[in-house]
Amino acid sequence: MKVTIKDIANICRVSAGTVDRALNNRTGISEKTRKKVLKVAEEMNYQPDYTARSLVIGKTMTIGVVLFDLYNRSFAQLLNAIELKARELGYFVYITLSDKKPENEINCIDYLVNRKVDGIILFTVNQGEQFESYLSKFDTPIITIFNYISEKWEYVGIRERQAMKEAVDYIAGEGYQKFIYISPPLAYLGKTNIYTQEERLSGFYEGLKRNDITSNPLIVKNSEYIKELENITFSKDVKVAIVCSTDLYALEVMNYLKKKGLNIPEQVGVMGFDDIDMLKYVTPRLTTVKYPIDEIGKRSVESMVNKINFGDFISTPLLDYEIIKGESI
Amino acid sequence: MKVTIKDIANICRVSAGTVDRALNNRTGISEKTRKKVLKVAEEMNYQPDYTARSLVIGKTMTIGVVLFDLYNRSFAQLLNAIELKARELGYFVYITLSDKKPENEINCIDYLVNRKVDGIILFTVNQGEQFESYLSKFDTPIITIFNYISEKWEYVGIRERQAMKEAVDYIAGEGYQKFIYISPPLAYLGKTNIYTQEERLSGFYEGLKRNDITSNPLIVKNSEYIKELENITFSKDVKVAIVCSTDLYALEVMNYLKKKGLNIPEQVGVMGFDDIDMLKYVTPRLTTVKYPIDEIGKRSVESMVNKINFGDFISTPLLDYEIIKGESI
Hints:
Oligomer: homodimer
Organism (chains A, B): Halalkalibacter kiskunsagensis
Keywords (chains A, B): DNA-binding, Transcription, Transcription regulation
GO molecular function, one term (chains A, B): DNA binding
Structural class of chain A: alpha/beta
Protein name (chains A, B): LacI family DNA-binding transcriptional regulator
Domain HTH lacI-type (chains A, B): 3-57
Number of helices of chain A: 12
């Protein structure tokens, strides 16, 4: 049975107010009484009622998180980092998954606001005026990560564009003349928020320009990208680089190329993006872009807690990346 | 500014009680008034106060989850399944991570109980009388998954022992005569709850016996298991099978064997356990044991919600597995 403040008060023969003073370390009672109350509370395994308490102090000490899913390795790692940092700072984490569906995401945000989370870390698929006006209705502070909405919203992300540009520098430096770019999410351009994918594509184009690659790249925005590759004849005369906007596409591409007996990287080069931890078991080692996913989780929580406690976010500059030189380029 | 029931009542020129009736679909008001109240509530973007509400109905509509971490692919997949099913049933998920530390886990459980979650899904590293007596103090229903505590606690798991036994059947059937078994968590035997690992080991022994393998296996309980392998000379005369209690160990072992130029499976066979999704990118394809991780998440939520609403868990038989015949045995 749930032990209440009243139960403790009865046993200690003091008022409920005195018990409350002792438990919440407030003044107005003797040290002897305080000790007695705390001892009885411990013996009776008294647990403070946070639900009632949160009504009083106006905080629930929880941070809500909206992610796409956890099947993506990077998201799981991100959530792990968020939970660790939040717990360190005394906060709990509500996890909600949108499955990349805009209407699901709205439900997630609605629920989190209704549950009175103290802040929301949002990896959004939504964008546009209507969505911003929807978000503006809430008092709950929001930090967007990866997918940027507008300057109105606090943002923690990485230098995606610069990273892809530098990846192209590296590939061009290795003598590749023709480029294929694979990014199925680009099919959603203008429909959902695919900011990170757009940035990577812009960086790709800027990289081509900077390296005077004049041959037009093939941009594959199709989830059937392996089928698209089946229509291409790879010759030994021209080195082709297949640039993938995430490691998972790159791994699928490598599986296909290996099955076709094509040599990586001699005939076809493959570039990924993410540096997921499983790469160390795959041969050849994928060349890719590494970025500090844990840091994004950590920084967004720190900034949120600062906002909750002191009213301001901690402005976070775009985080840096690193080209991982594997064996596939 | 937060819209309250009183605000809506003022605008509609009705009492707060009438607004409450309309919002919660209770009888005692006219259809016309109900429609008017709902319209105004929507226009004003009224959000029900779940924190206050949970005090009244005595439920928070949240399920707490205690896992080790999300770096392990299977745990991320499990949490994803839990979140999906919970949301479908109208529940929210609090995620807490113990990092496999018994004292962290106690903190997680304490917090979840204090936050008044309606139930806890627990992947525990704790065990023993003291821990059970600690758990018994709470009214919150608990479902244990994977690591079994005792018959006192509801449990959802898989036929681990049977799975490993059948894996040995398969390996022995392929002509392997010597066995190495790798399971670093066994170093914690008697210290923390490693039930699944113990079951797998028991199944391994039972499999050896059933297949009349008389040569003593080498059991490696060391996290430096690759170093242990370095001391072993693999000859071409005796086929050795390295049985790993999870895929991640098996992938490390395959990396080592490949580096040493040993042929898999001709000289050394490797068996995993988990069938993580990344295996499809690794050659040779790892032979492993697949089990329905999503189903464990789904079933545990369904059982918990039944307990919350109707007082009883849905008893779940141990879930089944499948031997995935890859190329490594």
